[in-house]
Amino acid sequence: MLCTMEGKVGKYRVTTSFSALYWSWNLLPSISIAFDEVGFYVSVRFLCFSANLDIDDEVREQEWTERIENRFVSLTDTEEDDIR
């Protein structure tokens, strides 16, 4: 069972999800917190239940996507391509 909701608050995309995995059980509750250049993520797990909250900055995400694409383009460009 998986329930997901997504919304937008200003430049942020907020995604929440809740799931119940009956074949995977966590006997001790756990909370995970993570962040990177584009977002902040929280995950809570207990027994067969899992809840996630993801907050992504869409502007920064687009900037990082463009940076990565430019890196790949520069890695795949060779002098042979320029000659043709």
Estimated helix fraction: 25-40%
Q: What's the order of the H and E elements?
A: EEEEEHH
Q: Regions with pLDDT < 50 over 5+ consecutive residues?
A: none
| Number of discrete helical segments | 2
Structural class: alpha+beta
Quote the average pLDDT: 85
Instruction: Tell me the major beta sheet.
Output: 5 strands, antiparallel
Distance between the termini: 54 Å
How many distinct beta strands? Answer: 5
Strand content: over 45%
Taking all Cα atoms into account, the compactness measure Rg is 19 Å
**Strand line-up of the largest beta sheet:** 1-2-5-4-3
Q: Into how many domains do the coordinates divide?
A: 1
Q: What is the approximate shape?
A: elongated
Brief digest:
By secondary structure, the protein is an alpha+beta fold. The protein has helices at residues 58-76, 79-83; strands at 2-9, 12-20, 26-35, 39-47, 49-57.
How would you describe what is shown here?
This protein has 84 residues and is α+β, with helices and mostly antiparallel strands. It has 2 helices and 5 strands, in the order E-E-E-E-E-H-H. The model has no long low-confidence stretch (mean pLDDT 85). The chain is 29% helix and 54% strand. The longest helix has 19 residues, at 58-76. It has one domain (2-83). A hairpin with a 2-residue loop joins strand 1 and strand 2 (12-20).
